[in-house]
Write a structure and sequence with these properties.
The structure holds 2 protein chains of 2 kinds. Chain A has a single domain, classed as Porin, CATH 2.40.160.10. In chain A, strands 1-2-3-4-5-6-7-8-9-10-11-12-13-14-15-16 form a 16-stranded antiparallel beta barrel. Chain A is globular. Chain A is built from 3 helices and 16 strands. The N terminus of chain A is likely disordered. The longest helix of chain A is centred in the N-terminal third of the chain and has 22 residues. In chain A, a hairpin with a 4-residue loop joins β1 and β2. In chain A, 10% of the residues lie in helices and 57% in strands. Chain A is mainly β. In chain B, 37% of the residues are buried. In chain B, 41% of the residues lie in helices and 23% in strands. Chain B has one domain. Chain B has 8 helices and 5 strands. Chain B is α+β, with helices and mostly antiparallel strands. In chain B, α3 crosses α7. Classes of the chains: A mainly beta, B alpha+beta. At the A-B interface, α1, β1, β2, β3 and β16 of A face α1, α2, β1, β3 and β5 of B.
Chain lengths: 338, 209
């Protein structure tokens, strides 16, 4: 509790300082970041309650979001996206391995990369830095910092340091990446690595589909885990409804796996209120048995035009097995982008 | 029933109050979700074109100025940074491209507008439209009626109060008139705000030619 009070004091200090920061925002844009730049500050507080063990875990994040396009006189050269976040945990029972413990504070990276776009004006770009692994539905939807997540948990990693080629052609979009396999950490042991990619139909259409692959050794707290995935995904918009589906086959540490995921979501006409229902299924075939598990998630997100975002989500198992289990979890998040 | 203890509620209320106190300024979606309109450029221009980004602040004063030209204006939430793309062939500017959003009864419709150097319309492309009505047939039909038209000519397709198609507009859009009305609103706002908010860039381009 002492830690959360300290954090509260830190945020209060920041909020008192912030008006003067905003007054200088225009000057900050042009003098420090130069032309064609945007920046914002992103603050959030989240509680995850395990409704079975009655444990509350808190996560606080304070980050910077910078976007800048570099241009020549007659063409763009590339785009820089820079999103460092300071994340503070409080009473988290199973933190990600790059946190020392469940009460740690760490600098984390959501997206931090430069996409060189000067080669063929969007058809072949080269991205260097920390970016989302190009795979499945997650690649098309911005779920950074939101309660709503799709299928990255199946692969054990959401974003990674590395290099990719990406582009948009008249009838398909693609990104192929070779990354470090270490997630937030740029330095790593055990020599992890991931080769991943997605080739899909144009994302602006109401009906989209894609083929993805993911091969490599992913760094975890207990060393590396070999993961292989080959997946397909599809998405369809109809007025205020969206239907999404993803399925994959592969291996985790040499054991055959299958995963499927579906989501139905609805947004109001002003696109401030979104609700969703997700279903997930996974199985893993071990030496003499196949374990399977499934879960459901229901969530709601409300955003106003001033940058406030309030969301809530509940996740519960449909069925479980000895090696695959989902604890019931209620999450609530307040987020504000300034 | 889920049990929630008082300290949990108190802690969350403190943070809620703090965040609500801070609510007074606009903001945007996370910037990693910003995408160049490459598909629109490929559809509206040939593949030999390059583009250059020009980000500008669309201000409250710009919004008020637009009100003087039209019986409607951009939404308050659009007072923020926006991007105009300048299209080049070799080193010569050929036109502009700007994407703008309009509210439909089923959500946002995002339209990318190709604009000639004289600020007449070259064409448009639905970057995002969740209605099956936004199909290739409707797109081609509305594009055919709008291609080459100036701000004044597009304005003439609307009624005086801007809430309906004029008789000329009704004749020009025999299919999907409601979608045509939405598209006309977007076209007029785009042409006007381009002249207002990117005045300096447009002047610079005309001087350099």
């Amino acid at each position: 509790m002492k830690n959360s009070h300290s954090l509260f004091q830190l945020i209060m200090t920041f909020s008192l300082f912030f008006p003067s920061l905003l007054v200088q925002a225009d000057a900050f844009d042009t003098s420090l970041l130069g032309e064609n730049s945007r920046w914002a500050i992103d603050a959030s507080a989240r509680v995850n309650r395990n409704t079975q063990s009655k444990n509350n875990a808190y996560t606080y994040a304070l980050g910077l979001d910078v976007h800048k396009v570099f241009s020549q006189s007659n063409r763009d050269i590339g785009t820089l996206v820079f999103q460092p976040y300071l994340v503070k945990l409080n009473n988290v029972k199973s933190p990600s391995f790059y946190f020392d413990d469940g009460d740690d504070t760490e600098l984390t990276w959501r997206i931090a990369n430069f996409n060189y776009t000067a080669l063929t004006q969007g058809k072949l770009n080269i991205r260097l830095g920390h970016f989302e692994i190009p795979y499945g539905l997650e690649y098309q939807v911005d779920t950074n910092g939101t309660l709503r997540q799709l299928t990255f948990g199946d692969r054990g990693i959401k974003a990674d340091w590395g290099l990719s080629v990406n582009g948009i052609l008249p009838y398909l979009e693609y990104e192929v990446a070779l990354t470090r396999g270490s997630g937030n950490e740029i330095s790593s042991t055990h020599n992890p690595h991931i080769f991943s990619g997605r080739i899909g139909t144009p994302s602006q259409k109401n009906l989209t589909g894609g083929l993805s692959w993911f091969y490599g050794d992913v760094l975890t707290g207990a060393g590396v885990i070999e993961r292989k995935k080959l997946g397909i995904d599809a998405s369809y918009f109809l007025y205020q409804w969206q239907f999404m589906f993803e399925s994959s086959i592969g291996q985790t540490a040499g054991n055959n796996t299958r995963n499927s995921f579906a989501e139905v979501s609805w947004m109001n006409a002003k696109e401030q209120l979104k609700s969703y229902l997700q279903l997930g299924y996974q199985d893993i075939k071990q030496i003499d048995q196949t374990d399977s598990a499934s879960y459901w998630v229901v969530g709601v997100q409300w955003q106003n035009t001033n940058g406030l975002d309030i969301s809530a989500q509940f996740k519960h198992k449909l069925n479980a097995s000895p090696t695959l289990n989902t604890d019931p979890n209620l999450s609530i998040q307040l987020r504000y982008r300034l | 029933m889920i049990g929630i203890n008082p300290p949990f509620v108190a802690q969350y209320l403190k943070l809620s109050v703090l965040l609500l106190v801070l609510v007074s300024f606009h903001s945007n979606a996370a910037f990693c979700s910003l995408r160049d309109p490459v598909s629109a450029i490929q559809a509206l221009y040939t593949q030999d074109y390059q583009f250059r980004t020009v980000v500008s602040d669309v201000t409250e004063a710009d919004r008020e100025q637009l009100k003087q030209l039209l019986p409607f204006t951009i939404h308050q939430s659009e007072v923020s940074k926006h991007t105009l793309y300048v299209l080049y062939n070799d080193d010569q500017p050929q036109g502009f491209l700007q994407a703008r959003s309009e509210w439909a009864k089923w959500g946002l419709v995002e339209i990318a507008w190709a604009i000639n150097l004289d600020r007449s319309l070259k064409g448009f492309y639905f970057q995002r439209c969740r209605s099956p009505q936004c199909n290739e047939t409707v797109l081609a039909s509305i594009n055919q009626a709008l291609g080459g038209k100036s701000f004044a000519q597009v304005r003439g397709l609307l009624s005086d109060d801007g809430k309906a198609l004029s008789p000329q507009g009704l004749a020009a859009f025999p299919i999907a008139p409601n979608l045509a009305l939405l598209t006309l609103h977007s076209a007029l706002k785009t042409l006007a705000i381009t002249d207002i908010s990117w005045k300096k860039e447009i002047h610079h381009l005309s001087v350099s030619q």
